[in-house]
Design brief:
With 327 residues, the protein is mainly alpha-helical. The protein is 62% helix and 4% strand. It contains 14 helices and 2 strands. A two-stranded antiparallel ribbon has the order 1-2. Helix 2 packs antiparallel against helix 12. The two termini are 44 Å apart. 29% of the residues are buried.
Length: 327
């Protein structure tokens, strides 16, 4: 039927999705969203999304996604156990234990032997293995430790620093333009400067809300905010264990921006100029309105992204017409 309608052959593949060229990228995108969905007000919708996402993660059987799910669930469990004030967190505790069990089962078992092949026979993505990625990234870092070899130049580092044994690999003729990890790509192409800045930014954003989490475990927890914290933590793990595409990069910076806005404290700045003193008040952290603010900020970010997209493609079209007329 799809062929009769005239769909592109790419749309007919079993691994087709709008997030990534592969199902591995899709499940890496779904893991942070699982933790974010724990705070949905519509519980039925949240349960449907969690069940679908967890089932797909198990069937795809991609080890990094299972590791991210397990590590984030373990951190969340540790926070709940450390904060013993909550009486309404029993259901959340059960869900996190289920995630942790799912992660352990997926890592320890060979899913292809448990489920029918018709369910788990997905096309697998070909990426550079972690050992080779680490070896090339460290060699490139030793060569240019501060600023790296430059953005988008991993293919140069790959050709220069790959070991001779790689020529015996079945993929010896492939010239990889990125490692399996975005953090390793930053380490090799932009050096310690960008890597340390990325880590510092992530740590500060994750650390900033914890002084304000005292009220979270009261009888009326503000789950949307708390789950945003662990969605951001899961996104940091994703950056460390998988390469970055447009959707994964946008979701990481979206979570980071929302976290920064929601944890901003009131500060006054006095700017003396032609108009005298100008008082600028930053956003006050408000536990009663964080859910509404998440929706508002998300809407603003999506509108901004749409505007940037239109300007970018409009300028590309204009530049293409200009070059055509010049030719």
């Amino acid at each position: 039927l799809a062929k009769l309608v005239g769909f592109s052959p790419a749309l007919l593949q079993r691994n087709f999705n709008l997030v990534s060229p592969s199902l591995e990228g899709l499940v890496m995108f779904l893991v942070p969203l699982i933790f974010l969905s724990l705070g949905f007000r519509n519980r039925k919708l949240a349960w449907v999304f969690i069940a679908f996402s967890a089932g797909l993660i198990l069937l795809v059987d991609y080890a990094p996604s299972l590791i991210v799910l397990g590590l984030t669930s373990l951190l969340y469990l540790g926070l709940i156990i450390f904060k013993k004030k909550s009486e309404g967190a029993k259901s959340l505790l059960a869900i996190l234990l289920l995630f942790l069990t799912l992660s352990a089962v997926g890592i320890s078992l060979n899913i292809s032997e448990v489920f029918p092949k018709s369910l788990v026979s997905f096309p697998r993505e070909v990426t550079l293995d972690l050992q080779t990625s680490w070896q090339i990234a460290t060699e490139a870092l030793k060569s240019r430790p501060v600023l790296g070899s430059g953005p988008g130049t991993f293919f140069y580092n790959f050709s220069r620093f790959k070991q001779e044994s790689f020529n015996q690999d079945p993929l010896w003729q492939v010239r990889f333009d990125r490692p399996v990890s975005h953090v390793l790509e930053m380490m090799s192409t932009t050096g310690l400067a960008s890597l340390l800045f990325f880590l510092a930014l992530a740590v500060l954003a994750i650390k900033s809300p914890f002084p304000n989490l005292g009220y979270v475990f009261q009888p009326s927890p503000d789950l949307p905010f708390l789950n945003l914290v662990f969605a951001l933590i899961a996104s940091v793990y994703v950056q460390a264990l998988y390469y970055q595409n447009v959707v994964l990069g946008f979701s990481f910076w979206l979570f980071l921006g929302l976290m920064t806005g929601l944890t901003a404290k009131e500060k006054d700045f006095n700017l003396t100029g032609l108009l005298g003193k100008l008082r600028i008040s930053r956003t006050i952290f408000d536990k009663d309105s964080s859910g509404k603010r998440i929706i508002l900020l998300t809407s603003i970010l999506f509108l901004s992204l749409g505007l940037i997209f239109l300007v970018f493609w409009g300028s590309r079209i204009y530049w293409g017409d200009f070059l055509y007329h010049q030719a």
